[in-house]
Amino acid sequence: MNKSEFIHAMQVKRPEFSKDAIRDVLDAFFDVVKETTTKGETVTFVGFATFETKERAARIGLNPKTGEKIDIPAYKNVVCNLSKKWARL
Questions:
Q1: Which of 9, 19, 40, 89 has the fewest CB atoms below 10 angstroms from its CB?
Q2: Which phi and psi (to 5°) does residue 54 adopt?
């Protein structure tokens, strides 16, 4: 399901909200999660999921075409961990 399909499904469940309103709320949700995790803070929805920033260490990788070793620098990545309730589906 992509974003448009998700918005349509939400509008079917809640016809009193327009697709534009649902899209605005969804965009605001992603903006807040991005801003919060960029600061290094965690966003938790008890019983659903936790969004947090994880730091990946620098490492040496291989170019799949040439087999040449390449340096992969350290970077931060946002991860979403589902609660046990949702992970069992």
A1: 89
A2: -120, 140
